[in-house]
Design brief:
281 residues, alpha+beta, 5-stranded antiparallel beta sheet, 37% helix, globular, single chain, 11 strands
Length: 281
């Protein structure tokens, strides 16, 4: 009987060792990246309250963000509105450059009147590239100026390996980031209650007089499927692969997870957040 218990104890120790969890001098919890079945090429899990890293896999490796770029686009928009005491519900006129933009769309028409609030929902729920273009033009004055604002913000947050080339995430070799940088940007965005409300919404009924596309359904299944899911953004292009920033909150604990180049994007994110909540116990 004693031998049996010794054998069981050894098995438990071997299984635990397989996780290769250790704390460095900064108290950061790390893993080898292969031990919990993450398909993503790059991934990171952080505590949503303090930013502590709980898991990482190639988190500083160059990756392409696709539409998770729009997290920064929304963050810049909300900050500029706040700084200028400008209301979100104000209507703007859609600039000509926002009509017919490649990729995901909310089918904006040049000259259409739509609120900035509806543009933000269209940006974050259904990933409208045209919404990103319209917001960049309105907030930045030009696309180029807005992109410069995005890069300046990334630098100010301490993102060392990020460079934006557009506000939507359409593939460009010069439009790149890392899982770590994207987690930093996402944590900053989630501090904003308006941002949290938008990305945590399941749908939005937009006030559009001359459009049949008024109901925006959230493409991020995290808010529907995962217990405590609170957001935030999916992204995909053929060249970038599947990218997901997911967030959740259970009690006083919250998680932000980034998976990039991830064939099993949602499964990866849910597995990582489950792992995080176990560590938090």
């Amino acid at each position: 009987m004693v031998k049996k218990y010794v054998f069981i104890a050894l098995v438990v120790l071997v299984v635990a060792a397989a996780f290769v969890i250790y704390a460095d001098k900064h108290g950061v919890i790390r893993t080898s990246g292969e031990d919990i079945g993450v398909s993503a090429g790059q991934a990171i899990l952080i505590n949503g309250e303090n930013g502590k890293v709980m898991y990482e896999k190639c988190a500083d490796e160059k990756a392409y963000p696709a539409s998770t770029t729009k997290i920064m686009t929304a963050l810049i928009t909300l900050e500029v509105l706040r700084e200028n005491d400008s209301p979100m519900d104000q209507d703007i006129e859609v600039p000509e450059c926002a009509q017919g933009v490649e990729g995901s769309s909310i089918y904006l028409k040049s000259g259409e009147k739509i609120s900035i609030e509806d543009l933000l929902y269209g940006l974050m729920l259904v990933s409208g590239n045209d919404a990103a273009t319209a917001l960049a033009e309105i907030i930045g004055g030009t696309q180029e100026n807005f992109v410069e604002m995005m890069n300046e913000k990334a630098k100010s947050l301490g993102c060392k390996n990020t460079h934006f080339a557009n506000p939507s995430g359409l593939f460009d070799e010069e439009h790149y980031t890392t899982a770590r940088d994207m987690a930093i940007i996402s944590m900053e965005a989630m501090k904003d209650p308006t941002f949290r409300k938008i990305v945590g919404s399941t749908s939005r009924q937009a006030a559009r007089e001359n459009s049949d596309y008024c109901t925006f359904h959230n493409k991020n299944k995290t808010v529907f499927e995962y217990e405590g899911g609170t957001g935030i953004k999916i992204g995909y292009t053929q060249n970038s692969g599947r990218t997901l920033v997911a967030s959740s909150k259970r009690g006083d604990d919250s998680m932000i997870c980034v998976v990039m180049s991830a064939p099993d994007w949602f499964e990866d994110a849910y597995r990582l957040m489950d792992y995080g909540y176990v560590l938090m116990k």
